[in-house]
Amino acid sequence: MKTTITYLLLTFAFLANAQDGILDTSFGTNGKIDYSFFSTFVDMKVDNGKMIALGKHTDGNPILVRFNLDGTLDTTFDNDGIKIVDFGNDSETPASFAIMNHSSGYAYLVASSISGEIAKIMEDGSFSSSFGTNGILEYEATGSYRHASVNYNPSTEKITLVRADGSWNSSDGGKILRLNANGTIDPTFNNGNMKRFYFYSGGQIINLNSAHTDTASNIYIHGLYTQGGVQDSYTVKFSNVGVQDYSYSLNVNGSRSYDPSPRYLLNGLNSTSYIFGMSTTYKMMVVKKAANGSLDPTFGTNGVVSLDLPNKYYDNVTSIAPYSHGIDDFKIILAGRTRQQTGNSDVFLSRINSNGTLDSTFGTSGFTSVPTTIANHTSPIFLGVDYSNGKIYTMGYTATGIVSMFRYGVNLILQNEETSNYVLKIHPNPTKSNLNFSQEISEIKITDLSGRQVFFNKEKTKNISVENLPKGIYFINGKNNKGEIISEKIIKQ
Question: In what residue span(s) does the Secretion system C-terminal sorting domain sit (predicted)?
Fold first, then answer.
């Protein structure tokens, strides 16, 4: 097998197509598909060549929906692409979901917003027969569950549940519970008990937003403190055994937002993170935090990026997606809503470089937007990047009762003319366990089709084990002894 060597991660024939950030008019009608079966729309993710959306059906049932890359419902998922997740609560709107990329295969975890329950749904849309009772696990029988965040860590194969007590703007704090992949209690976290936490001491009102984990299984919980109509972002960190890290910066300058729900994204590989929303000057806001929770001075202006879409008043970032752009670099796509001081909002996309500067090669001078008939500039737009076809997908409300999906082109990795005739042999490929290389390579990164890094090895080696990776297609990247970068596709059986 001949391996192309280049200064970039991947090379695909389709990457020379249309300019980044332009609507793909071959998708739906002029780049958009409308769906009218959502009464509430909660979230959307792109993974393993599918789009997965969480919400509530117009018939009142909580639903998990899976789409093909062309926007059609995936009928291999529960026969019609729509899975009803019935927790037994008439007023249930599901709180959150996580993709479970487990060594035994794919599954989805859905957390209830009312009861202390999570559901595990298999890749074919059936409930897991080995998780809880008929696929629904009750982890706590009493209490109020105004927010629950579920997280799955593929590095440790652990499920983390974080939920808030009390009502909105309550001072009751929250709890953390960690489970094994089969739903049993993990005794290594807080001796198998729920961990009570506050962002400050008891009595401080912080509204829970989301929970995340890094590869070492540290837990990061993001919350919001409302004062004077402005949201302050706070983040607490706990170790993999449940001990709070008080050295981690709780709050940073520049993260105040007028968006009712500024959001948070953790890079689990290096523990850096981003807070994003709309700044107090109504501009796009992206804040980068270093691994210790402090502002990252290499990003934007002292860790803060503020962007203003021309001729608009409100610019609100509701979703971001960092993705690899070369072996040692990345870019960040921003999605959200923008509008004049009055009138209807537009769905926008933008892209920034890894240092926070605007990438003017994206869209038109760094931006692209599509009009809607929704006035609300805080209604979230969710974003995902699919590496298998080089596309960006966004999803959110565009009209009353209508959730729309948009597809845009993106050159994930631009080709470089600098290549070599060096041949690296990888065997066996496909493999069930080990990969052997004909020469030593270092800085080995393996990413799945969604661009998520699932393996890293810095040291030189001629073989690695991929036994714990789920079955699927991956891309392996590394450096040879000459410092040249190698990229190849591998198949895990």
Answer: 426-491
